[in-house]
Specification:
single chain, 128 residues, mainly alpha, two-stranded antiparallel ribbon, 5 helices, 72% helix
């Protein structure tokens, strides 16, 4: 199980590092072809989403990798679990944006990311 959690964590971290880097470094004009929803939000909100994704990606890996004191109330992996929970929240909030824009076909990708991050959260919180 631990190997599966590490593999999923690595894949999600790479995905969110790439997405967060784009959102924090590129102009909305460059992002528009891939992410039409950038017209619906302000630039500070776009940057906040990007920074949140970057921090979430780092939070999935670094606490466990660096063996940071990572337990609260006797549950080891809490920091990584909280990072995964934050990434779930980002995707949950993205779904209504896609639906409102008539992009319901993009929501299965959001659901996959939700399920993968929820798996990591559950494993890190000791529920699996």
């Amino acid at each position: 199980m631990n190997l599966a959690v590490w593999i999923v964590s690595g894949l999600l971290a790479a995905t969110y590092l790439a997405a967060g880097t784009l959102k924090t470094t590129q102009s909305p004009d460059k992002l528009r072809p891939q992410m039409g929803w950038v017209d619906d939000i302000s630039l500070p909100t776009l940057r906040l989403i990007g920074v949140s994704e970057l921090l979430g990606a780092l939070g999935l890996i670094l606490p466990k990798l660096l063996d940071v004191v990572d337990d609260r109330a006797g549950v080891e992996g809490t920091l990584s679990g909280l990072a995964a929970t934050g990434l779930v929240l980002i995707q949950v909030l993205a779904i209504p944006v896609h639906i409102r824009r008539g992009e319901a076909a993009k929501t299965p990708g959001n659901v996959v990311l939700i399920l993968l991050a929820a798996f990591i959260a559950a494993a890190r919180f000791g529920w699996l």
